[in-house]
Amino acid sequence: QRVVLLDPSEDPDDVLRANRSRERTFAFDVVFDHGASQEEVYVSTTKSLIGGVISGYNATIFAYGPTGTGKTYTMLGTDCEPGIYIRSLEDLFKALEATAEEMDYTVSMSYLEIYNEVIRDLLNPSSGFLDLREDSRGSIQIAGITEVSTSNAEEIMQLLTKGNKQRTQEPTAANKTSSRSHAVLQVTVTQKSQRKAIGEEMRIGKLFMVDLAGSERAAQTQNRGKRMKEGAHINRSLLALGNCINALSEKGGSRAQFVNFRDSKLTRLLKDSLGGNSRTVMIAHISPASTSFEESRMTLIYAYRAKNIKTQVK
User: Fold this and answer.
1) CA angle, corner 176, sides to 174 and 181, nearest 5?
2) Which residues, at least 6 apart from 197, have a Cβ–Cβ distance to it below 8 Å?
3) Which of 83, 71, 56 is nearest to 285 (CA)?
4) How far is CA 221 from CA 67, 84, 216, 299, in A?
5) pLDDT per residue over 178-190, tens digit each?
6) Known binder of ligand: residue 176?
7) Beta strand pairing status for 24-27 and 2-5?
């Protein structure tokens, strides 16, 4: 459960810094090394959330980390090693089919990306840029997004692969297929009992799966022009997310923190998953390369803070 981060630039003969080692140890719920399989990661992080979604709770899974550390691989995976999206949807449908005799259920999903602070629908890219709106109950809706209802994991697979091809990816010096946007897959499960009772209750559970764009340094990715602008937008929304996480993790502390969810579209969309009514898992990715020591350090500190957020799930 521990990560030990060693500083690659530490020199044993450096007298001035002899007592100031930058070695840090972080404790997490689970830590995976390079040999972990997709199955292992899924079972330890996400599998337990699926039952909750069916009971009407909300759940969120984040992939976070610097550019090129494998976030899209963890979430989407490859055809022979599917990632969290597909595994969790398969489990979801299996569990729903088991209750199909007494419950009617519908599953609808939408898949969107936030690119340069504008929202694009990945299932219907021609619809242009979409707006975030808040409905009367205070939950955030996206006006005009395509919602696809389906009861079949295969169909969803094809939709996801199609949607992911629409995602903005560009080569940078650090990563050949760098995702330049945050992708959010939202799955809503609605269940009704088949025995039509008066005042019948509906259970609605939402599952958010978020593949964030990698935080990056222009020096490392050698970005210029348009890439540089994109990088600035990515870092801005991740900073907003970081500020929200900081404020939420200090919330029980001495000073009452104001949590600014309105800084970025990303944090507005994830408002409920971060501080609200949701069980949330953050999967932080780091690279073992010595060149990305600083990024790995920041990612670990970030994820460590996120661990202190306490939410009340109703």
Assistant:
1) 85
2) none
3) 71
4) 9, 27, 7, 17
5) 667 888 898 999 8
6) no
7) antiparallel
118 — phi, psi (to 5°)? -120, 150
Asked if residue 65 belongs to a known ligand binding site, the reply is yes
Residue 72 labelled as part of a binding site: yes
Give the closest residue to 186 by CA, choosing from 170, 201, 204.
Answer: 204
Question: How far is it, in rounded angstroms, from Cα 49 to Cα 54?
Answer: 9
pLDDT level of residue 154 (50, 70, 90 thresholds):
confident
- Domain boundaries of the chain, sorted by first residue: 48-170+179-307
> Please, is 258 exposed, middle or buried when counting C-beta atoms within 10 Å of its C-beta (0-12, 13-18, 19+)?
exposed
One-letter amino acid for residue 204 of the chain = I
CA distance 65 to 215: 7
Strands 202-211 and 182-193: antiparallel
* 71 belongs to an annotated ligand binding site: yes
Return the structure tokens found at 247: 């404020």
**146 assigned to a ligand binding site:** no
CB atoms within 10 A of CB 237: 22
Architecture of the domain whose range is 48-170+179-307? 3-Layer(aba) Sandwich (3.40)
Other C-beta atoms lying within 10 Å of the C-beta of residue 189: 23
291 is in an annotated binding site: no
Whole-prediction pTM value? 0.83
Q: Identify the three-state secondary structure at position 199.
A: coil
What pLDDT is recorded for position 173? 55
Smallest Cα–Cα separation from 295: which of 5, 2, 3? 5
* Interatomic CA distance for residues 10 and 23, integer angstroms: 9
Other Cβ atoms less than 10 A from the Cβ of 57: the count is 19
State yes or no: 275 annotated in a binding site.
no
Q: CA-to-CA distance for 122 and 107, rounded, in angstroms?
A: 18
Residue 74 known to bind ligand: no
- Tell me the per-residue pLDDT of 89-103, one tens digit each, with 9 for 90 and over: 889 988 888 887 778
